[in-house]
Amino acid sequence: MRVELLCTGDELVTGLTPDTNSPDLEARLFELGIKVQRVVLVGDVREDIARALREAASRADVVIVSGGLGPTADDFTAECAAVAAGVPLVEDAGTLRFLRERAQQRGRELTPNVARMALVPEGAEVVPNPVGAAPLFIVRMGGCRLYFLPGVPREYRTLVDGEVVPRVRTELELRAGRTYRAFRLLRTVRVPESVLDARVAPLAKAHPRVVFGFRTHAPENQLKLMAEAPTQAEADAALAAAEAAARAELGLAVYGADGDTYTGVLARLLTEARATLSLAESCTGGLISAQLTAVPGASSFLLGGAVVYTEQMKMAWAGVSAELLERHGAVSNPVAMAMAEGIRAACQTTYGLSVTGFAGPTGGTAEDPVGTVYCALAVEGAPTRCERFSIAGDRDLVRLFAASYALELLRERLLTAPSSP
To answer: Do 17 and 162 share a domain, yes or no?
Structure first.
């Protein structure tokens, strides 16, 4: 089944609003084994929208259209749909009745611009919107079925989940000779995209039914595995074999799969180990704390921390000595280790994690230029571990990767020594 998405609105083509609807729908359709062939963005120009609808309908079996169904002057997608289909607009009695009742419930009169949302192309199937005003309507053009949805994300996703995906699934299941697909997204850290590609290249040859793809979403790189076969059982088996081979090759670099998040996985490891954590952050400025506290229940393992941005605060809150700072400098291995040990002692946690570095664009030394970061992990009964990293990029990227590298020290420790903190 060939599926295309068409999104309308000047806000999408001028950069004012990102298209968040399409990625969600693409993922939902992929779960059905459907890979979206094309996503088209069109501004608020009647002729362009009508032309785009005709072109998409000539190529695809299903086109899912969003936007332009509201009450304002730039909402004319229904009009364009009628033009593209070569039929007039007609008033849907059920929608008009709903709009009138909705206005009365809110103590308002039904204005002409709101009543326009009841106009749909003649012959369209109309589906009520359970969370909004403008309905979903479905139009056939030749061999293509076009679904028209409001662009408001909450309304769009409700109608996608409740109406569009179930209908597409039913249509797909009735098709003969369909290709079945199975998908897995493996999430990796500390493996550059080029290295990831090189390491799994031999696996692609060994698993011809699986397509290997890659996606970068800093600070992680993702390996996409998609198996295709004549039956779902064969696709599932091919995917399982390729995933097992990829995990064996990449080892600890794979932190999770599909909908896993790094901090969610780390939270689970800390909880299972009954371990607690404290943080001393310098160049990351609380970024690690923010990432971890985004996880519900983080208070069970994250007891506290400090943003020790200056030398004074490194001494006061992380217990770093003035002599150590003077001898080695704030961005150094000894100071990072002292920060981790000091914050762990102050908070009385299982682990103490620290990060200090030059995020830029100024600062740095000949030995430790901008982008140099030291991360340290302290734990009772074991030597404190510290690593030096050189991170290329602007200030935001240095901070993002510094947080990631620091947390990796902790994840690796939890995975390799789960029975003893």
So the answer is: yes
Boundary-marking domain end, from 116, 146, 173: 173
pLDDT mean across residues, the chain:
95
Nearest Cα to Cα of residue 6 among 46, 40, 57, 38: 40
Cα(257)–Cα(301) distance, integer angstroms: 23
Which domain does 160 fall in, by range?
3-173
Residue 258: half-sphere exposure toward Cβ, Cα within 13 Å: 9
In a domain, residue 421? The reply is no
| Contact status, residue 279 vs residue 354, Cβ threshold 8 Å | yes
121 and 144 co-located in one domain: yes
Instruction: Give me the number of domains the chain comprises.
Output: 3
Q: 279 and 382: one domain?
A: yes
Q: Identify whether residues 193 and 241 lie together within a single domain.
A: yes
* Structure-token pair, residue 134: 């403008």
Q: Mean pLDDT throughout 185-193?
A: 95
- Residue holding tokens 């190529």? 59
The model scores a pTM over 0.90: no
Tens-place pLDDT, residues 50-104: 999 999 999 999 999 999 999 999 999 999 999 999 999 999 999 999 999 999 9
Token pair for 25: 């729908």
- Looking at the chain, the whole-number percentage of residues with pLDDT higher than 70 is 99
Q: Which of 231, 257, 283 is the C-terminal boundary of a domain?
A: 257
pLDDT at 32: 84
Spatial distance between the Cα atoms of 145 and 53, rounded to a whole number of angstroms: 11
Q: What one-character DSSP code corresponds to residue 70?
A: S
